[in-house]
Specification:
heterodimer, A: two-stranded antiparallel ribbon, 11 strands, globular, B: 386 residues, two-stranded antiparallel ribbon, 15 helices, 13 strands, 41% helix
Chain lengths: 313, 386
């Protein structure tokens, strides 16, 4: 079994760090930073922290009040060889053909290190702020059409489709664009609808933390539904972590989905791996320093429990 | 007055010479020992490089040679400018990324967030080339079934919304194509400058849209009087709306030490054009007015290269040698500079230049042609060093 472990970059978190507009001039300490020092330098450091400490990938969170996940993904890609980079975004971004085209360009430029995490759109007011007056009931249909069209134009020439949200006539990428593989699609959700949807469309389905037996049940349910569709879906978990040298220190540091010593956290994650969860999407705050801490102290302990992981790394 | 000169990134592969149309740089043609940057070494193994690495070299060449930035074109079989620009953001310093895109393909509020983020990633180096034309089967290939004039209406509304959410907190909009309630970029993004907007399109619907939103009206090179008329018309119409429109020209150059060398390359290039290429360019369906104006030059019917000389140092067969506009400038460095000066006198405020191969020609034109324009200060330090 191979585990794939991702760090999650949240562009809205610690908004002051590296942010040029929040600098406060000081009459004692000279500030040599120029307009060329950017918040994106900080994003790149977080991404490189994940790469240097042995993570396999980097998710970039979507937040309509922060920098765009796909711009961040591309801006850090050439500084992080090896990492799979997975921007989270909703299907409201625009044309599905154009989204697929951009994905293919990313794949070609990065030796196929892109993933897509398609998230559901925000509430009705959020959607209207974003020029997206779609009804609640239509959101799932739009994601379905979005993925169908994107995979369609990627996978076949002469592709034609007319849906409610997307249409294309005689589409399809040509050589050399069609030689790049389509990015793995990550979907999430714990309810029955999400699980059924992922059975049809996800490459990796991400659960939120729950008791191991509850997760086990969901994993088996999704596995069965996917098999009925003649598909396989891999299982993942999205979790916040606080890991310290001892359980006491970790508890004193705050609350998270997994709180404990490096050994405790590694042990609990490996218990989930034992029920079939092979993708772990971890985050903690502050996201730069904690990437180093988790990467340096938790990941090796997980690797010890899974020799196959070491081979993969 | 200063004139911005942009270069161009070939997003569909490049050719090592204008004499042959084979795309022997990039992976748009099969890998061979003479093909650069296809991602494979001479043994056919992955060499770790990708076409983006070649594009990075061209962007840097343009930056080093004094260009403001480069146009990054978008067509069905190209790599995409919205991906190329952030990928290259951190390894360029002054190069401006001119992103060609069709507004209908992106949600306008999402596009504003993308753009403001790219401004933050590049230190304000984002420029737009908004394209709306095209049409025909290609438009349906992209998944866009809007009719020609509707596309321009949509472009106008797109830019209304794009600028509205960027500049006005609590922005409301009720249009034919877009509705927004209480929109607005977050403050850290909204404080970035709006990207300069370069607008293409030759029809009346396009001019109307450009008058409202464009900073630069961009045209392919056309016969000079025709172009001067068009620029005058655009500037007049914008002035009537209380604005000021700058005009820009996108043109290919073949600039050589002597005029004879330049025409010799054109001649060889023309003689290497296959009948198949000729037929392909003749047969393309489009509702683009600009493309029809170029086709009126009828380069695909010419039997001899010199039938296509339509004026001093002007050749009308470039679209046979590579995709794009027909008319281009051919001559010695001095003659090329003279043609550019004439165009400036007729109303050009900026240029997008290109030459094949894009990498070496960025240096050549930046070093040999651009310095002949205007009055350069003597490079005292370099003279002292010599």
């Amino acid at each position: 079994m191979t585990l794939t472990i991702y760090w999650r970059l949240d562009p809205a978190a610690e908004a002051h760090r590296g942010e040029p507009s929040t600098r406060r001039p000081n009459d004692l300490v000279p500030d040599g930073r120029t307009a060329a020092n950017l918040r994106f330098d900080h994003y790149t450091q977080i991404a490189r922290a994940a790469a240097l400490t042995g993570f396999d990938g980097l998710f970039v969170a979507h937040d309509d009040q922060a920098d765009d996940s796909q711009i961040i993904a591309a801006a850090v890609a050439r500084s992080t060889p090896r990492l799979l980079i997975v921007p989270e975004f909703p299907a409201s971004v625009g044309s599905a053909v154009y989204a697929a085209k951009r994905a293919v360009s990313f794949q070609r430029a990065t030796r196929e290190r892109l993933g897509w995490a398609i998230i559901r759109d925000g509430d009705a007011a959020t959607r209207l702020r974003g020029a997206d007056p779609i009804a609640d009931d239509d959101i799932e249909t739009r994601i379905e059409e979005f993925l169908h069209v994107a995979r369609g134009v990627h996978g076949q020439q002469g592709f034609t489709f007319k849906g409610r949200f997307f249409e294309v006539e005689n589409g399809g990428f040509e050589d050399p664009l069609n030689a790049a593989s389509f990015p793995p699609v990550f979907l999430a959700g714990d309810d029955e609808d999400s699980i059924q949807f992922s059975a049809r469309h996800a490459d990796v389905h991400l659960f939120s933390p729950a008791e191991p037996d509850v997760l086990h049940e969901r994993v088996e349910r999704l596995d069965r539904l996917a098999l009925e569709q003649d598909r396989t879906v891999a299982f993942g978990l999205v979790a916040t972590v606080i890991a310290r040298e001892s359980d006491e220190e970790a508890r004193a540091a705050g609350s998270a989905d997994f709180v404990g010593s490096f050994d405790t956290v590694a042990e609990r994650l490996s218990a989930l791996a034992a029920i079939g969860i092979t993708h772990f999407l971890l985050s903690s705050s502050p996201q730069f320093e904690e990437a180093y801490r988790v990467g340096q102290f938790v990941l090796p302990r997980l690797r010890d429990r899974f020799p196959a992981l070491r081979a993969a790394a | 007055m200063t004139i911005d000169f942009y270069w161009r990134l070939p997003t569909h592969g490049c050719s090592a010479s204008i004499r042959r149309s084979s795309l022997d740089r990039g992976d748009w043609s099969p890998a061979s020992p003479f093909n650069q940057a296809p991602g494979l070494n001479a043994e056919g193994e992955d060499d770790g490089f990708r076409y983006i690495d070649h594009l990075a070299e061209i962007a840097k060449a343009a930056e080093i040679s004094g260009f403001t930035g480069g146009l990054i074109p978008s067509f069905p079989n190209t790599d995409d400018p919205w991906v190329i620009s952030p990928l290259l953001a951190r390894e360029t310093r002054t190069f401006r990324f001119m992103i060609a895109f069709q507004p209908g393909f992106l949600n306008p509020v999402h596009a504003a967030r993308l753009s403001a983020s790219l401004q933050r990633a590049t230190g304000g180096r984002t420029v737009f080339n908004v394209i709306t034309g095209g049409g025909g089967p290609a438009q349906l290939w992209w998944g866009d079934s809007f009719a020609h004039d509707d596309r321009y209406g949509r472009t106008t509304e797109f830019l209304d919304v794009f600028k509205g959410v960027w500049t006005q907190p609590g922005f409301d909009y009720e249009g034919r194509f877009y509705t927004v309630k209480d929109g607005g970029l977050p403050p850290l993004l909204a404080r970035e400058a709006l990207p300069e907007i370069w607008f293409s399109g030759s029809s009346d619907a396009a001019l109307q849209s450009a008058a409202k939103h464009a900073d630069y009206y961009l045209s392919w090179l056309e016969p000079y009087d025709q172009l001067a008329d068009k620029f005058a018309r655009v500037k007049e119409r914008t002035a009537a709306l209380g604005g000021e429109q700058k005009c820009a020209i996108r043109v290919d150059l073949v600039a050589r030490p002597t005029e004879e060398e330049a025409w010799a390359d054109i001649r060889t290039g023309f003689e290497n054009v296959s009948d198949e290429t000729r037929a392909r360019w003749r047969g393309q369906a489009t509702d683009s007015v600009g493309a029809r104006r170029q086709a009126a030059l009828r380069p695909t019917d010419a039997r001899r290269w010199d039938e296509l000389i339509i004026g001093p140092n002007l050749w009308g067969g470039f679209n046979l040698l590579r995709g794009g506009p027909a008319l281009g400038i051919v001559g010695s460095y001095e003659q090329c500079a003279e043609q550019l000066s004439q165009l400036i006198a007729r109303g050009a405020d900026a240029f997008i230049l290109a030459g094949t191969p894009h990498l070496e020609e960025a240096y050549r034109i930046g070093e040999e042609v651009l310095p002949l324009l205007g009055r350069a200060q003597p490079a005292t330090l370099l003279q002292a060093a010599e």
